[in-house]
Design goal:
Order of helices and strands: HHHHHHHHHHH
CATH topology of the domain at 113-241: Tetracycline Repressor, domain 2
Structural class: mainly alpha
Largest sheet: none
Shape: globular
Low-confidence stretches: 4-34
Oligomer: single chain
Radius of gyration: 37 Å
CATH architecture of the domain at 113-241: Orthogonal Bundle
Mean pLDDT: 79
Strand content: under 5%
Helix content: 55-70%
Length: about 260
């Protein structure tokens, strides 16, 4: 057999009428006498999953998300301010105007009055919890407690304004109130503990006692400038808690 014939059988023969334009390969001829087996594709068989390519969001999309987040924060801040200062007549339109957005933007973020109330209330409670940590790090024990209680009065004022203006009847046994009670009790408890340890106040007053006193004063207040009066009365209450406080350098009763 000539070399030419061997090459033809190994690699296929040119087809008639297609000389110079391609080679037809015969798999049987090419693989004759060999142990060749075509391996299945691992991607076809599913042995290795083909990774899904997720493109980065375009810059325009990221800008829309950032704008939406800013609008939501502006709405929450505006709602807290509007309802805190309102006499019960504030509206959602007033909140939107204060935030500098349209009423449609407000409803896109908060479809119902309940959704707005919950978002504002959770935000305010979270800020109070963080404030307790900040005051504990920066202020002496007793001034830190007084400052925190004044901000708690502002939270109750916001809540009162929202419940009145939005005509809501919120279940006091709901998850929202359980969340707020836990967060606020923990925050004021930490500040109270610092005062007791420093000998600034007596040790038989718990965080629940202090919160119940404050909320009770807020709910009983009816006059227009009730916030200032409640703050003054809470200062008096804290002064009363100082009576009987045991200084750290004082010993026990030897009698």
């Amino acid at each position: 057999m000539s070399n030419r014939t061997g090459r033809s059988r190994a690699f296929g023969e040119r087809t008639s009428g297609q000389a110079g334009h391609g080679v037809r390969i015969s798999k049987g001829d090419a693989c004759a006498g060999s142990n060749y087996t075509e391996a299945p594709s691992v991607y076809k068989a599913g042995a290795i999953p083909i990774p899904e390519m997720v493109p980065d969001p375009p810059k325009a999309t990221r800008k829309i998300r950032a704008d939406s987040a800013r609008n939501r924060e502006r709405l929450l801040a505006a709602a807290a301010e509007v309802f805190r200062a309102a006499d019960g007549s504030a509206s959602l339109e007033a909140v939107a105007r204060k935030a500098g957005v349209g009423i449609g933007t407000l409803y896109r973020h908060f479809p119902t009055r309940e959704a707005l109330f919950e978002a504002v209330y959770r935000r305010e409670v979270g800020e109070l919890a963080r404030l307790a940590e900040t005051l504990a790090a920066r202020e002496p024990p007793l001034p830190a407690l007084r400052l925190w209680l004044r901000e708690e009065v502002r939270l109750v004022a916001t809540k009162r304004g929202m419940l009145t203006a939005l005509a809501l009847a919120v279940d006091s046994g709901s998850e929202l109130y359980a969340f707020s009670f836990t967060e606020l009790t923990r925050a004021v408890g930490m500040l109270l503990h610092r005062c007791v340890e420093a000998g600034e106040i007596r040790g038989d007053i718990g965080p629940e006692d202090l919160l119940q006193t404050l909320v009770g004063l807020c709910l009983m207040a009816k006059e227009p400038d009730w916030e200032g009066n409640v703050v003054r009365l809470m200062d008096v209450f804290v002064d009363g808690m100082r009576a009987g406080a045991r200084r750290p350098d004082e010993g026990g009763d030897d009698g």
